[in-house]
């Protein structure tokens, strides 16, 4: 099997050589004076990706899940109420984490394939006259279903009900790939990680924390030690770390930010839209359906695709891995066996996406799916060649 085949899972994502090399550094002393010069600019520049001026960027050596835990433990107290909608595996897991911390979780059950229900949030917040709800939790991009939620609409609903709750957003599989506006959307804590849009190895949770969340920290009573914002901020203030930092990831992050800014965040988002659209055209060409219920919910980083009745999506993902050495995302939770996922985020080109579509198409043909060989690839090719950005067009001329 060739390790040059890209992965089409929605994280961890393909690591460009430039970033693999950037992470390849010998041990350095994080207490030496030059660590400040490496680390402080990374924290400052990450704010641009969150689109925030007001918030503080805080990182932990952890996967994204640790970022959820840090958000909750630093700002809430046992018995506090949080309001969450469940519409996929990741919103479900965030609910589970809150429950295990002894929070009172008010859950709005939604169909998998739908997004955050701003209207239901507004009703729940308006009914909460005593302001027991301390935070509203939203998964911006539900990676299990390929659904992007409208965070601005949730903020508008919170404002309409004049409720003082904080807004926490999981943007692990959207930050650095799809438009995210922490300040404009009034997000109090945004949680992300190193291994998706930042195209790095797994191991760094990356959070944006608003002044309001920092104020809540002063009275919050849940226990935290490793994930204590205060220890981290105190050390970060002089450019340091309260324990051993993931140095290689910090070097990687520095280079990843450079890459994102060189391309331009707007261009990065446009590239993700265009590649996602090519995948959606292919799905349509195959005669299959997305799990996402309507176009405004379509994620530009991952597509979850129902297999036809009578087929098992796990057989498809296993077969494609064994026959062609390529990984696609399995169906998670309720979608297990029913849908497979194509991750299309991070370091990705037209050519890479076409190779993935062609490969999974072969897999479906091998398993006698009612899908014509070429039907999806042709639709994607048509779209891609007719939507080339100016830079690619002129290079080809
Ligand atoms: C990947 C992901 C996470 C974090 O998962 P880890 O494996 O802990 O990094 C959280 N939320 C969403 C939506 C994700 O896609």
Please explain how this structure is put together.
With 397 residues, the protein is of the alpha/beta class. It has two domains: 17-261, Type I PLP-dependent aspartate aminotransferase-like (Major domain) (Aspartate Aminotransferase, domain 2), CATH 3.40.640.10; 265-396, Aspartate Aminotransferase, domain 1. It contains 14 helices and eleven strands. The chain has helices spanning 17-23, 35-50, 64-75, 89-100, 118-127, 151-160, 211-217, 229-237, 247-263, 265-286, 313-324, 350-366, 375-386, 390-396, and strands at residues 56-61, 81-86, 104-109, 133-139, 141-142, 147-148, 166-170, 189-193, 204-209, 302-306, 339-343. The chain has a seven-stranded mixed beta sheet with strand order 1-9-8-7-4-2-3, with helices on both faces. Strand 2, helix 4 (89-100) and strand 3 (104-109) form a beta-alpha-beta unit. Helix 1 (17-23) runs antiparallel to helix 9 and helix 2 (35-50) packs across helix 9. The longest helix has 22 residues, at 265-286. It is globular, with a radius of gyration of 21 Å. The two termini are 36 Å apart. The protein binds pyridoxal-5'-phosphate. Pyridoxal-5'-phosphate is lined by residues 11, 63-65, 90, 139, 141, 143, 170, 172-173, 193.
